[in-house]
Predict the structure.
Amino acid sequence: MVLVCADPSEAVAAYFCSRLSALRIHHRILDLSTVPSTCSIEWSWREGLPSGSISYADWTVDFDELSGVYFRNVWLDGADGEGKSEKSGCAYPRTDPRIAAALNSLPCRVVNRPRATYSNRSKPYQALIIRQFDFKIPKTLITNDPEVAKRFYDECEGRVITKLISGVRSIVRRVNEDDLGCGGLREHGLTQLQEYIPGDNIRVHVIGERVFPVRIQSQAVDYRYAAKEGYARTMVAAKLPENVGNDCLRLTREFGLAMSGIDLKETPTGKYYCFEVNTSPAFPFYESPARPVVADALGQFLAQGEEQP
Amino acid sequence: MFFLLSDRGDLLCQDFQQALQRQGYSTRVIEDLFSSASVEWRLQSERSLALCRFQDGETISDRDIHGILLRKPSFEWSQESPAVDTIYLRAEKEAALLGWIRSLNCPVINRYPAELWFAPIDSLDYWRGRLEPFGLEPERRFLRETIKSYRVSVVGSKVIWDEGAPVSLRSVDVSLVQFARSLGLTYVEYRIADSADKPRVAAVEPFPSYREFCLSGRQEIIKELMVQLTTSENAALARTAPDSWF
């Protein structure tokens, strides 16, 4: 049995649950939007392994019955999610510590264990780990000084983008000279700038030992919002050089993840830059519902139920 | 130069600064790095370099920093700031500070992995399943408030109990050190409950409170922190500590 710990009205979780149903994979949904009042977890540690059960609404599942768990704890996009940060006083949704502890310890496959999901709340933290592999990372400046920002802009001959430092969702955008005023690039004056890297974006989903690369071609700086910028976007299945694919697998393991969504860019000269490792990737964006390769691979991965070492 | 990233009123920060200064080290207490200095942190594939230009005119490169004591940053904001701005700005500062700390070559107490920076670690529930492989057991919830517990700090491989702790609790010393190492932390505080059958963990504090220790305990903690942060042998150890336990 697969346990889905997520808000079932959130788009990615809803899509994944629909694929589990289509694949006839038996699953239960633990709706994180109603936790903690609706959920109880009883467990103990016996002979080096956790033993117990999770109860929610009208069902109870023993740990032994689980082949895999899908965990996704994000704010809802759009109107339903608005104001949640303000109400909670946090930039991110809180994870119930009881659920986190259980998912961190379960002997079955978990995509992903909560403890492994925090690294992409700091992009420079991730970048420092990414650069230990064979990937390049873009020349980056983090500053609160407009003069320093201007100097970096000039050094990069104006080919500069800005993105948030944290894991809060934001649009990556090109910087122009008007942005570099005395008030800084953002109201608080703390800004991350990066040299713009030309080339094709490649999104790589890693599930276990499998790699699913997609090449995205668009003139937009942030291809996710290409239409808003008035640009077209094409996405096609890609093939990675063996060493790049292997580095994606190693990087995923390094972050303690069973599944990742890695953002790469291949330059016209064949160099691979890595921007980020998404620890709770929104994979449906990258595939057609008519050909749900990643969703089905994930469902099968969790249904197989091999214990992790 | 040693950086103490902490509120000025924090007792650990005050005591540690005095100890450093007594031994002739220069120190700087920084409550909010990004509000008190112009920061220029450049990061690329081959190298990382940061410059901090403080309002008093001093400029310090990260190569000039010999060690850092890092307390949980509060990043206070003025009451006038809109709530949403405050939330996101704090997230930005926390993200930048976590990354910058990881980039440094000097010893840092503690060089936190992302998990301990962001996860709900204040709850004992969070640590269930993590303590047990080290032979430690979390206190059962319904007993926590009725059983007396004692503070204990692990600094490196040194275990420092608060006064009055029964000798019998020391049977978990080795486990406490090993667990702290598994987190990649140099300095961790615990509360250990004196349960009927065996000592149990009532709290894990990767951001140690320190203040509640007796005077002799605090003095011993400071002495060990000095060893960890100022001796070159331990500086190397601090740098190679695991950043995560994955």
